[in-house]
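Exercise 7. Given the encoded structure of a 166-residue chain, write a plausible sequence.
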């Protein structure tokens, strides 16, 4: 996001948060079939029209954010959740977006759950701290040997930590 100061209608200053113009321009190109590669085949959009679309996107995001914030504040919550965004869309007359937003929310929840489970599995590999340190030192020694020109010993040292994993 980018910030810029602008003068409000009453003469005061306001911090306007804008969306990244380059990213939105790329999305517009892809939507028009241009793919952003400049190889034709798609439609083109005049720069002033592109700027107007980007401004509309920014205003839409600001309106949904403000409504979501208002709804969460009324409920005594300080965090805007996906549910408040969906309620805001409904309140602003954008019910047609509700299904797609719910699908995106559910996909995001699934991805986050998968990431947490994967991280937990990596963290819990069943070694004590001492065994993990010994394994790390053994791997560093082998890598150092390979870097110094020798291939290093590919078999674990007798009784080494790697031997107990295989």
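Solution.
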């Amino acid at each position: 996001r980018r910030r810029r100061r602008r003068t409000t209608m009453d003469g005061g200053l306001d911090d306007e948060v804008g969306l990244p113009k380059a990213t939105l321009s790329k999305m517009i190109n892809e939507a028009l079939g241009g793919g952003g590669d400049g190889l034709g085949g798609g439609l083109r959009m005049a720069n002033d029209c592109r700027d107007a679309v980007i401004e509309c996107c920014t205003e839409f995001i600001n309106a949904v954010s403000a409504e979501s914030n208002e709804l969460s504040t009324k409920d005594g919550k300080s965090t805007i959740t996906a549910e408040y965004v969906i309620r805001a869309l409904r309140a602003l007359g954008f019910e047609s977006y509700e299904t797609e937003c719910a699908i995106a929310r559910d996909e995001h929840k699934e991805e986050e759950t998968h990431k947490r489970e994967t991280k937990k599995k990596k963290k819990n590999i069943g070694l004590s701290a001492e065994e993990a340190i010994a394994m790390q030192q053994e791997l560093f020694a082998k890598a150092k040997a390979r870097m110094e020109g020798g291939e290093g010993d590919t078999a674990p040292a007798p009784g080494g930590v790697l031997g107990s994993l295989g």
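Remark. The chain has a mean pLDDT of 81. Students should compare their own answers with the one above.
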